[in-house]
Write a structure and sequence with these properties.
This protein is 36% helix and 16% strand. It has 365 residues and is α/β, with parallel strands linked by helices. β3, α4 and β4 form a beta-alpha-beta unit. The radius of gyration is 21 Å and the shape is globular.
């Protein structure tokens, strides 16, 4: 279904990350001459009809590919996911109320710190003591029925964990889906807002995709500066100021690419199969490789694992690079190794890594 890696290096980067080759090739052409206008994509005014078409198509494809219901608004905003850490409590954490956060890693930890600038935060679950190697059991969390909103991160890039099922909450549910958005279907009945920084699974850095239920958007504060108001961005069709045109263009092309692959159900099946190749190499290594994540909570986007010692991990990274496989070093807070296998990552790359892992374990075990 995906193009195979040929002359390009096999890139396991956690983000910015691998992109569909066909989209990159189309972007090369449009950067030079968009719509036969004789003007490149980056040179057009954002008020030009070619750019408004790009935004309209990106929004329409976002809805179509993701099966987004009509009662949600699609926004393309500056600032990436980190801007949303502050923008969400600015909009919804009213004075005298608290918000519920499940802390499953670095990015929820950062979101909690930002939210506490604006109000009280109730951490309903905290995985810090186990170095965030698991996801809570759904029935173990006591969500506050009086909270302003409930918040979780669906996939934890650094630690290689993900929520296999959506939590059920009594208040509006918001999810940071930055490292897995549109890698599998989304339960829209349970969510009131989902968002993602594009640079992991949807496109290049520079834009956050925000999909928010209109009834929640109507509750957003209007006392904030204009750039931090969801209602203004929605009214202005994500063009309140000069938008990140190239990033939105690319995200729209990625949506079209996902559609061409069969949509989100097909993407989930393909991602499960891709990740299984690498997890099988871990599980069948006789203990040479050990995963950071509990098996029941394994991510299909970010696969984290260790060798018996740091010297072998350094050798693994060096030898993998000699086989043109790069960006396999784990995050400093976890150490070890990490293979990120996002939507655009080809299955052939996972097979190549698994074969290398099997041979490396055989030689060094």
């Amino acid at each position: 279904m995906t193009s195979t890696i040929s002359t390009r290096t096999t890139n396991f980067s956690a983000g910015p990350a691998i992109l569909p080759e066909s989209v990159i090739q189309q972007a090369q052409q449009d950067l030079w001459n968009l719509d036969e206008t004789g003007i490149g994509l980056l040179e057009h005014s954002h008020r030009d009809k070619s750019i408004t078409r790009i935004f309209d198509e990106a929004k329409q494809l976002c809805r179509e590919v993701g099966n987004v219901p009509d009662d949600f608004e699609v926004l393309f905003l500056h600032g990436g996911a980190s801007m949303q850490f502050a923008m969400i409590p600015m909009a919804f954490l009213d004075s005298g109320k608290s918000a519920d956060y499940a802390n499953t890693g670095t990015w929820t930890n950062k979101a909690i710190k930002e939210a506490r600038r604006f109000g009280d935060v109730n951490v309903v679950w905290d995985g810090n003591e186990s170095n965030y190697n698991s996801i809570p059991e759904l029935d173990s969390i006591q969500w506050d029925s009086k909270a302003a909103y409930s918040y979780y991160c669906s996939n934890n890039t650094i630690y290689g964990t993900r929520w296999a099922r959506t939590p059920s909450t009594p208040t509006p549910l918001i999810s940071d889906m930055s490292s897995e958005m549109y890698s599998r279907p989304i339960d829209w009945d349970s969510h009131d807002m989902v968002y993602a920084g594009a640079q992991k699974n949807l496109g290049p850095a520079g834009v956050a995709v925000v999909i928010i239920r209109k009834s929640l958007l109507e509750k957003a504060s209007t006392d904030n500066p204009s750039m931090f108001r969801y209602d203004i961005h929605a009214k202005q069709e994500s063009m309140f100021n000069t938008p990140p045109v190239f990033a939105v263009y690319f995200v729209g092309k990625v949506f079209a690419w996902i559609k061409s692959q069969g949509g989100l159900v097909s993407m989930e099946q393909m991602n499960d199969r891709k990740a299984a190749h690498v997890y099988d190499a871990i599980d069948n290594s006789g203990g040479f490789f050990t995963g950071h994540s509990d098996a029941k909570d394994r991510s299909t986007m970010n696969i984290t694992f260790r060798c018996p010692n740091e010297e072998l991990e350094a050798a693994f990274i060096k030898e993998a690079a000699e086989h043109e496989m790069v960006n396999l070093k784990g995050h400093r807070s976890v150490g070890g190794l990490r293979a990120s296998t996002y939507n655009a990552f080809p299955e052939s790359g996972c097979l190549k890594l698994a074969e290398f892992m099997n041979e490396f374990a055989r030689k060094n075990g």
